[in-house]
Specification:
The protein is α/β, with parallel strands linked by helices. The protein folds into two domains: 12-42 and 320-416, Aspartate Aminotransferase, domain 1 (Alpha-Beta Complex), CATH 3.90.1150.10; 61-318, 3-Layer(aba) Sandwich (Aspartate Aminotransferase, domain 2), CATH 3.40.640. Helix content is 34%, strand content 16%. It has 13 helices and 15 strands. The protein has helices at 4-11, 45-48, 57-67, 82-94, 126-141, 158-163, 167-170, 217-230, 281-284, 303-318, 325-335, 361-374, 398-416; strands spanning 26-28, 31-33, 39-42, 118-123, 145-149, 180-183, 198-204, 233-237, 261-264, 275-280, 346-350, 353-357, 376-377, 380-381, 384-390. The strands form three sheets. It has a seven-stranded mixed sheet, with helices on both faces. Strand 2 and strand 3 (39-42) form a beta hairpin. Helix 3 runs antiparallel to helix 10 (303-318), helix 11 packs parallel to helix 13 (398-416) and helix 12 packs across helix 13. The longest helix has 19 residues, at 398-416. It is globular. It starts with a helix and ends with a helix. The structure holds 4'-deoxy-4'-aminopyridoxal-5'-phosphate. 4'-deoxy-4'-aminopyridoxal-5'-phosphate (PMP) binds at residues 125-127, 130, 153-155, 204, 208-209, 237, 239-240, 265.
């Protein structure tokens, strides 16, 4: 009989030439459990997904309740699905104002300056959310040019690949989308590329796969200004940095800017698949005010995912999870700084979106392997392979942070021996 590992490798198509193929039987909170009493601290939250921990009881309860009512009904529009309504209403209020201020028709009879009038288009993943956002931007502005940032990751579809810059990732799939340009992240001089021809600029508010790169506040504010001046839509990709990861619900809140479109996924579903692009009701209306449909997604806004997402949002808000993030950040910083060991070259991050840099990919690979043996699951970044990804569930306690850092430091020591 073939082992489950062999069956997995034979029949589940792989995305990587060296899959870890770890067997996990159960996951709860910050832990994953395997056979023979194996237990790992999940220090990466399934890559920025389990922000409220694995199988949060309130998320499970919401899912179970919904399962007794209905699952899929119909591509949305045909039926009012209460989970979608409740989630979209709650999401609208998470923004400080109506998105896309400069595009609003304030004379419109439905316009109300006192409430956030935002709408959410639900999809299934981050890549699909990016896809929908750029379609909305093109359709709304009637322009074609799109601008992305160097070292960005927006997903794996053709459009998302086009907006990123990794040459080797793009090469086998050329030609990709036309009329795309790129600017250096966090470099003001490059903003002159944004003109009246640009439909949208898409930027990760904090770059994730680039290895946790935090822009200057002044950079994002100048970008915001340039977009407003040229009538360009500013899309913030909050797929990895949103939903509390940086210590604020949305990372853009750190920089005092308001984007025109926000894309989210990953942690949004509390472990269930969901993605979304969000904009003002007025901007979003252009997807439906024309006989040619704007975007279609059979499963977008799946009611089970929506209740899980709403429960996740409530856990973050009602349990005041974000209040302790700064303190937890400081503890990681203290325990994993270059001052702790010379093997650590740099500690970067914001909130609990962290990167610990080592001299090389080879060194980090050994540290990660030792961590796994010692009971901690970690990772590197797609475009920054000498840095360890640290993005634990936000519910991690200070005692657990100390335990996790102790494992990482021990793994470093074993690597150095
Ligand atoms: N944007 C960012 C910033 C991401 O980190 C990711 C996923 N790593 C995506 C988009 C794509 O999301 P998905 O894998 O759900 O398509």
């Amino acid at each position: 009989m073939l082992s489950s590992r062999q069956l997995f490798l034979n029949h589940v198509a792989q995305t990587s030439p060296f899959p870890l193929a770890l067997e996990v039987h159960n996951a709860k909170g910050i832990y994953m459990f395997g056979s023979k009493n194996k237990k790992w601290i999940d220090i990466i939250s399934g890559i920025g997904v389990s922000n409220v921990g694995h199988r949060h009881p309130k998320v499970i309860k919401a899912i179970q309740k919904q399962l007794k009512k209905y699952m899929h009904l119909m591509v949305y529009g045909e039926f009012i699905q209460t989970p979608q309504v409740l989630l979209a209403t709650a999401l609208s209020k998470t923004f400080p104002a109506t998105l896309g201020e400069s595009f609003l028709d304030k004379k419109n009879e439905n316009y109300n300056a006192d409430i956030a009038q935002n709408a959410t288009y639900f999809v299934n993943s981050g890549s699909e959310a990016v896809e929908g956002a750029i379609k909305l931007a093109k359709r709304f502005t009637k322009r074609t040019q799109l601008i992305g940032c160097h070292n960005a990751y927006h997903g794996s579809t053709h459009a998302a690949l086009s907006l990123g810059t990794s040459k080797e990732w793009k090469e086998p799939f050329l030609p990709l989308l036309p009329d795309i340009d790129h600017i250096n992240f966090n470099e003001e001089a490059h903003l002159s590329k944004i003109t009246e021809k640009t439909a949208a600029v898409i930027i990760e508010t904090v770059q994730g796969e680039g290895g946790v790169r935090i822009p200057e506040k002044s950079y994002l504010q100048t970008l915001r200004k340039k977009c407003t001046e040229t009538g360009t839509i500013l899309i913030c990709d909050e797929i990895q940095c949103g939903f509390g990861r940086t210590g604020k619900l949305w990372a853009f809140e750190h920089f005092d800017i308001i984007p025109d479109i926000v894309v989210a996924a990953k942690a949004m579903g509390g472990g269930m698949p969901i993605g979304a692009f969000m904009a003002s009701q007025q901007m979003m209306a252009c997807l439906s005010d024309n006989p040619i449909l704007g975007h279609i997604s059979t499963f977008g806004g799946h009611p089970v995912s929506c209740v899980a997402s709403l429960a996740t949002l409530k856990v973050i808000q009602e349990e005041k999870l974000l209040d302790s993030i700064e303190e937890k950040h400081e503890l990681f910083k203290k325990l994993l700084s270059p001052k702790t060991t010379k093997a650590i070259k740099e500690f970067r991050g914001i909130g609990l979106m962290l990167a610990v840099e080592f001299e090389s990919f080879e060194f980090l690979q050994k540290v990660i392997a030792h961590c796994l043996d010692l009971g901690l699951l970690s990772d590197w970044f797609l475009y920054c392979d000498n840095s360890m990804r640290i993005a634990p569930p936000l519910i991690i306690t200070k005692k657990e942070i100390k335990k996790a850092c102790k494992i990482i430091l021990e793994a470093i020591q074993l690597t150095e021996e």
